[in-house]
Design a protein that fits this description.
single chain, 100 residues, alpha+beta, 3 helices, 6 strands
Length: 100
Amino acid sequence: MTFHEEYLRLKAMHPDAIVLMQIGNYYEAFDEQASTLADVLGGLALPLKDGSHTLMAGFRLNSADRRIKKLTDAGHKVAVYDQVNRGALKPRVLNRIVGP
């Protein structure tokens, strides 16, 4: 399963929230939520390098509290999924849902 496919699965469980998915040392969002992240946080939403039109945007884990607050202050609900290391697999579990 690709990161984007996993993201779509998680997003389907939280259609009313921006889903942030931990990938390594970053929280990432895809598609229209990547555009929202870029607009609210002042960054860029860039296309994946796989040739698709899928957008991706994110930020480092160490800035998460500040950036999630900025998203909720702008009226967005946020679902945060963290990686759980178990051998070579890195499943993601819901850490928290934060609302305005």
